Amino acid sequence: MWKRNSKNIKLLLYIIFLLISIGLIILLLISEPTPDYTERSFDTLGTYVTVKISGDKVASNTLLDIIESELKRVNDKFSANLESSVVYEINKNKIARLDDESMFLIKSALNISEITGKAFDLTIRPLVELWGFHDQYALASVPDTEKIKEYLNYIDYRFVKIDENNNSIEIINENTKIDLGGIAKGYAIDRAINRINEIDKGATGFINAGGDIGIIGPKYGKLPWAIGIRDPKSSNAYDITDIVYLYNGSIVTSGNYERYIIEDNVRYHHILDPKTGFPANNAISTTVIADNTLIADAFSTAIFVLGFDNPALEYFTNFGIQAMVISEDEEKNETSGFDYFRRKGRK
Ligand code: AMP
Ligand code: MG
Fold this sequence. Notes:
Number of helices: 8
Bound molecules: adenosine monophosphate, magnesium ion
Number of strands: 15
Helix content: 25-40%
Structural class: alpha+beta
Strand content: 15-25%
Strand order of the largest sheet: 1-2-6-7-10-13-14-15
């Protein structure tokens, strides 16, 4: 009797042990390890950049090094302020040879200039310099109205001629200069994400360059990133007016709070209307969601210029974007598909 009991207890213990083991194995199989995120912030592309990343096969710090150097490489190549840049050379000599990358970026900027009917115009540079918005250390001030009128004559993307057969560019007006500031941040982010995808496809995280955000991969590999859209009226950068959820792709916000001066109680900011020569004043913030950051960046600048009651807003969804525009009195006007991104469960 005792013997049989002890056998039963042994069997029972064995079964319990087996069940616990199976349970543990199942738990292990269904619960993936939660990746740790590593963060780094630095200055480049005229703004403050924050990157959050978790490597899959490659150490996060190595990936951060790659992202930082790629963003800085694009900055150094395309910043109109740096004497060693491609853009500086083009502006100085009015004629130059272009490598494939420069050709791609300038062609993209020309396309956006055309599509948006000059709301975005890559030849905005003379006006940006006149206002003093070209350099974060320059002292901006409201220029003389006559000067603005004169400078408007230099702003037209059609002064820029590219020859794809000869890989060359020519600016046919001696006072015209180009400025890729409204598009280069987005391009740099796309390039950095491409590089990460090439070497570690399973890496996740995002790059945020002063309101230009490109997603490297969903949070923990499966969740959307919750992205707060800054309240343009608040002086606190952490106050938000909206939240959208993105698994991948890009979101870019342009605001009148990024770079500005105040004179006689009027705010003058860095997004200029190529038709008036003054800061665009029919919106205070625009947010654009797209598959890539270059497109989102360029359209956020253009849609800002076109303003709150722009009748072409919905038309731009043909270019793969969704957009939201905020007016001075904080009303929101948005494309039909924008609201989709406010729902957390979307895939
Ligand atoms: P973002 O912060 O992306 O909206 O871009 C603003 C930057 O783009 C400015 O600092 C200028 O260098 C440049 N920019 C300003 N106005 C325009 C415009 N209408 N078209 C193209 N680029 C512009
Ligand atoms: Mg932009």
